[in-house]
Amino acid sequence: MNHTRGLLSSTQVLRQIFTASVRTPRVGILSFKLLQNAPQSRFFQQSRCLKLREYRPPVEKPPINEAIRASFVQVVNDEGDLDPPTRLEDVLESFDHAEFFLLQVQEGDHDNPPVCKIYNKKEVRAHEKAKAKSARETKVIFKQIELNWAIDAHDLSHRLKQLSTFLEKGRRVEILLTTKKRKRNPTVDEIKQVMQSVLDTIREAGGTQTKAMEGEPGKQLRITAQKIN
Translation initiation factor 3 N-terminal domain spans which residues (predicted)? Predict the structure, then answer.
């Protein structure tokens, strides 16, 4: 009969019930596993991009005074020779700690005690200051000044003052003389005046050219100068 064609047989109904009962938990388990594994997979992907910082062990300074871990030490005397092994306590009691300190300059071993030397605090500070000053003096700071051949008198005066200041501070200065786009071309007299003003300023500041000029006057010219020590 036509009205029975849309009905399912008992076998089909049972098949759908049992199929649904079996598939439903599988889908749930699968979705749970996907949710569980998704952040974990992202974690591993992100962990691959992580960069471990390189471990740098702290720099250990030589021990001084009571920080020296030894019962006996050998002290370097004024002649540069080693005194016989002496108790550390006796050595520490032999000088004024306000003015001197005992520094371990060489580690000891099973047969020999550590080697130490008594230093004057003021002399050490003076030596460190002189060393820092020498490092600052040897480190020359490079400066550059750019000038236009057709520069006006006010701007030229300002740039020349900068040049003089840099040279007096001992800095190496590179003066770049050039033309600028959309600016008028300089006259021959302007070129001579600007170039002579730069050279006069270098000489008056006690400077000298450290290498030959590079370029062509009126176009692009490079002058490098530094103060004479």
Answer: 64-135
User: 3-state SS of the chain?
Assistant: CHHHCCCCCHHHHHHHHHHHHHHHHHHHHHHHHHHHHHHHHHHHHHHHHCCCCCCCCCCCCCCEHHHCCCCEEEEECCCCCECCCEEHHHHHCCCCCCCEEEEEEECCCCCCCCEEEEEEHHHHHHHHHHHHHHHHHHCCCEEEEEEECCCCHHHHHHHHHHHHHHHHCCCEEEEEEECCCCCCCCCHHHHHHHHHHHHHHHHHCCEEECCCCEECCCCCEEEEEEECC
Q: Is the pTM of this model over 0.70?
A: no
Q: Of 87, 110, 135, at which residue does a domain stop?
A: 135
> Residue 80 falls within a domain, yes or no?
yes
> Mean pLDDT per 10-residue run, the chain (229 residues)?
45 45 44 47 47 65 92 92 94 95 92 94 93 73 89 93 92 91 86 94 93 91 88
